[in-house]
Amino acid sequence: MRNFFKVVIVGGGTAGISVAARLLRKSKGLENEIVIIDPASKHYYQPLWTLVGGGASKKEDSERDMASVIPEGAIWLQNAVKYFHPEQSQIVLDDDVTLNYEFLVVASGIEINWSAIKGLKEALGTNSVCSNYSFEHVDYTWETIRNFKGGTALFTHPNSPVKCGGAPQKIMYLAEDYFSKMGIRKNIDIIFGSANPAIFDVVKYRTALEKVIEKKHIDARFRSNLIEIKADEKIAVFENLDTGEISEIKYDMIHVAPYMGAPAFIAQSSLADSNGWVDVDMYTLQHKKYANVFGLGDNANLPTSKTGAAIRKQAPVVAENILASMRRQTVQSKYDGYSSCPIVTGYNKLILAEFDYTKEPVESMPFNQAVERPSMYMMKKDLLPIMYWDGMLKGTM
């Protein structure tokens, strides 16, 4: 096997595939000079899992063979990275093969730690303990919701970064809407236990979502972090992050957003900052220490939400700056922190949050996006998946 490539991309998710596709579109000289390293055999469009958990989409529509999304002209190496040696422009794979590169793109996503909440891993997918953050278990979320007849429905958001920060609350809104449609809402108490200080970071959308919570009669408890599930007793244990006080909630169903963090092989490398994320310039996405290394997506230490929409704006910046570096030019393309969160607030209702590093709205539609709209729901459900598979992964949007 070859041991040198002009561009090595670690990660075959949204970020890695998008950058590879853009580089190949921009430079014909890179055909067969880009290798994408990822051990997974499948590629997932994870934003669909909220709708799958709410019974509005099929999980099979979120899955494709990895081989089918690798851009023509790129090489896929179904392997994993063990070590980075950026001083030598080398990586070492799991089978101890060393690869040399001219440029490295680190796009390995975020790692889910199911074990960080005591009792969660063992209980997941059973006894009304569900989570949309797993392809394997997302169907069980819908099974739990549609078979629920009454009692306490508990939804949680952890004290860690998460991919798509709005997802833990989206499924709660869908569940509430379903319970209402089934005429059983009066029999159900809905509690949102969130480690965050508020329902959303951006004031405009926070205000709108606070009204949604009030309208839906949801008991939102902030700075409340789930630390344990006692599945046999159906008890959730929370820590108040301000006071340290421990409390328990008796539930009849629980949807858990698990702890997430930087992938271990990145966190333990010289590419990482003190929190384990790839340490890049927040505008150019170039590594702060190694000029021929770039990072984007969920594994980067960018002070914005970890979403596919953010990657859509980051990928062109990385591609342009790699090509500029190849020409020995100054990197000039800049990322402004744009991210978007289509917040499903019920069936056929959605608030489209768009914002940048300043936490100010950066809206792309000619109307107030903090208003719940059926049109925006249809965009998420029907249009965005097409844009993803046929546009973003092809490097055209």
Automatic annotation (TrEMBL):
Residues 5-129 form the FAD/NAD(P)-binding domain. The keyword Transmembrane helix does not apply. InterPro entries: FAD/NAD-bd_sf, FAD/NAD-binding_dom, Sulphide_quinone_reductase. It holds the Pfam family Pyr_redox_2. The keyword Nucleotide-binding does not apply. Its cofactor is FAD. GO terms for molecular function: FAD binding; quinone binding; sulfide:quinone oxidoreductase activity. Keywords: FAD, Flavoprotein, Oxidoreductase, Quinone, Transit peptide. One of its GO terms (biological process) is sulfide oxidation, using sulfide:quinone oxidoreductase. Coiled coil: none annotated. This is Pyridine nucleotide-disulfide oxidoreductase.
